[in-house]
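Suppose you are handed a protein chain with no further information: no name, no annotation, nothing but its sequence. What can you learn? This example shows the usual starting point.
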Amino acid sequence: MHLLLISTYELGRQPFHLASPAAALRAAGHEVSTIDTAVEDLGSVSLGYFDGVAVSVPMHTAMRLAIGIASQIRSVHPKLPIAFYGLYAAVGQEHTLGAVVDRLVAGEYESELVEWASSLSRDSRLVVDIGKTDFLAPDRSTLPPLSEYARLEWEGEARLVGAVEASHGCRHRCRHCPIPVLYDGRMRVVGAEAVIADIDQLVDAGVQHVTFGDPDFLNAPRYSTDLLRQAHLRHPDLTFDATVKVSHILQHPDLWPELSELGLLFVVSAFETVEETTLEILDKNHTVADMRAAVGLLRAAEVFVRPTWLPFFPWTTPDDMVELVRFLDEMSLWEATDPVQLAIKLLIPEGSLLENHTAVAPHLARYEPTSLTWEWAFADPEAEVLHKELDALAAAGSDCGAEALTTLGLMREAIGRAVGVDLGPMPPSTGPVPHLTESWFCCAEPTAGQAAAIGLTIGREIF
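A reasonable first move is to predict its three-dimensional structure. Written in structure tokens, the prediction is:
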């Protein structure tokens, strides 16, 4: 069979979730073409040439865009088998399965895609697989060149970046996260041989920095540390970044000096909010004091930290946003913050662990299939006005390529206006922070620019 694999968005990275299934499908004897609509034109391929199409949906933004693409394909080629695969595949299934797609594959999707490709059945079905899998090294041979994707900006250079995954799932069950809905506290390792082989081919292609896309790199600390040791031994000049929970940062204080020596340049960590009650509702297993300690621990080891934020909840007030500004001031984290992080609004997809939480349920209105989330209203109308303003500033800055600190300055001013306080100028810079040039985020709504790239129009609520 000749299959087309489509990616819509992977955080500005060359799509791992095209390369991994391509390897499995080709090993099974199928012919595979790939297209990444983030950097390629979907109109450049003749869909009538393919026996089936599978679209990668590893995150919210990608799923929103994938539904639009699948709808376009189905309207022109109504008999062409279509599948969604990835973490978000089962989200909104009542409105996608049988309507715009024939098969949904959630979890460890490689073997299930191979099985589907052997028959390309139009029988509508959801398949969930979180079992152990033997992974091959990803096949990146038909992907766009790495030069088309985000770079690492550091020390006056724009370094070529490749993204790998060493594990899937997560041992934790943070209530706002879509991962525990599927994996329920389980994780699956990819295996050192496949990961190292992927790093080797990325370095051969010119990569100078590798991003680990694992939900949490220290879910299995011995495995992950051994991986970095192997990679550093083979490629001593290579640098890395990884995502790690605050609690894991603190649980492994002795690891950080070694990880720094092995090339770990920065850590992304989901701080989320500076409101303690909200951290408890989310079951983050950390406090604001823990966040301060984590920053200090990483900085002492000469590892940079890039926190991610989820500042808007039904109970958020403009005063809460002022407290977030003050935390960023106190911890000198403005250079480490992407503007979109100050505009993220809580998403509650179907099946979320927050759906029935006593603090959240009273705020929910109805499930909105077009946005793949429960609708909820702000208890404070002024918070809603502020969110819309910050969201518009972040989207405009992203689409026009504005400097992050310029956009953040405008957002700081907006937060001050919302409470009638002059928050003053940005604190003096403490120096540059390494960062990837892609600033958007997995749980943010698609921007107009992202939608336009696949021929869609989009509002901030529905497209």
